[in-house]
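Entry type: protein chain
Record version: 2
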Amino acid sequence: VRPVQRGQERIREAAKLGFKRALVPAANMPKKSEAGIELHPVRRLDEVRAAREPDLRWKAPAACQPCDPSA
């Protein structure tokens, strides 16, 4: 898993948007933790797959939930 540009900026923005957990390329892990978001460093795709196991219970923030058309 390769690092991305402005990784820490993207992590802060995800936290502002309400995300609670993020899989982050290990090279993009901040030196100090970001408030409000749990970071999981990954180096290989098998680590990504392991992190997505049911015990992590990934949930999108309320703003990302599909709208109810009948409402």
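Comment: The radius of gyration is 14 Å.
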